[in-house]
Design brief:
By secondary structure, this protein is an alpha/beta fold. The protein has 2 domains: 85 residues, Arc Repressor Mutant, subunit A (Orthogonal Bundle); 250 residues, 3-Layer(aba) Sandwich (Rossmann fold). It is built from 16 helices and 13 strands. The protein has a 7-stranded parallel sheet with strand order 3-13-12-7-4-5-6, with helices on both faces. Strands 8-9-10-11 form a 4-stranded antiparallel sheet. Helix 2 packs across helix 4, helix 2 packs across helix 5 and helix 3 crosses helix 4. The chain is globular, with a radius of gyration of 21 Å. The model has no long low-confidence stretch (mean pLDDT 87).
Length: 343
Amino acid sequence: MEQLIEAQSKLVPEMMDVLQARYNMLRYVKMAGPIGRRPLGEIAGLSERETRTVMDFLRAQHLIRVAKNGATITEEGNEVLETLATTVDKWSGRVSTANRLSTLLGIRAVKVITGNCDKEVAAKNLLGMEAADVFISGIQSGGTVAVTGGSTVASIPAYIGNKSDREDLLFVAARGGVGDDIGLQANVIAASFAEACGGTYSTFYYPEALSEEAHEAFQKEPSVLKMIELYDSVDCVVHGIGNARTMASLRGSTVQEQEKLQEAGAKGEAFGYYFDREGKVVHRIRTVGIQTKQLERVPLLIAVAGGKSKAEAILAYLATAPEQTILVTDEGAANEMLKQMAQ
């Protein structure tokens, strides 16, 4: 099949553009449906006329259905997506990029989705969809899953849907609260994962950044001791990777603290740790949460981050990340990472 498509692309190169456009539109309908034509066109980056043409074709082929509340994908449409997924990814070069990155980074695998989160509305949702597939295919029954906060991780549960019925999974927050957006807190996201999977969750309502005195006091709390015990037996961690400067601002760090981070060469952040370009920890937040040393024994580590602007931060964290890490990212970040590693 792949050789056939490659041969066809050489003889009829415009065919591949049409295939990619229709394939992407079908994925967007699956991701956002039911969805109207106008918002679908905005996501796909197509004019209203182009969107209508592609939608009419997909409907005629019974790959989508269109109703008053918008377009949704059909069972046949899902089958087409699943059949073409590997071939389209290989043809686009994303598989080659992913394999090259995983080798250079020394991690288990890299998954690259189309687009750039910095510019495209759909990219972050596609990241969530891909991460959901990685999670569902990798998680074992009866496990404990720790999740961090952030908008990218928050996008994952919506795409778990009916794919996973895991009442035996326990979800916990990997760290305390960061920022003021309740919907992006690790506790809320853990509850969303549990709801999507039919599992359970354990709450952990402590602020992420603590004074030395408060940190010492909290370490003795029964609920904290229980959570630390859970962290020692976690089977999966799903987390984001932050830009050091952005995370410092989100945490309300003082100007002096931000200047110190900049002077130390902080580029990326994860789990309350700030990393420089070589992966060295240059600063650590006092936090009651999962620690980097605990990650070494976790069988399934899923890091989710995208956007060209995140490339440097991702490289900083992955420079010393556990080798069992699976990175889910986008073309914007992946291509920029390869560019920076080649310098």
